[in-house]
Fold this protein.
Amino acid sequence: MLELKNEKHIAEQFLQGMLKADDTGNYELFIKHYEEEDLVDFSPERFEYDIKHMQAKNGRNVGYEYFGALQGYRDGNHDGCFRFV
């Protein structure tokens, strides 16, 4: 497995922020790293609705486990990025 300590740390910080946003209903924290074009039709109300129903269906997050990273992830202008799972 690739050793990507710096990249993994960045991914974990991102994930922890997203999970905290989910748990606290913090829209601003959730969208912190989004581009404007990705937020079209994603209002604070939509976020609240999505979180409410996601938690009702799946329960709250209790933890996460790192499985690894894939090199060469391709998606538009993100060629060559790592994808953490």
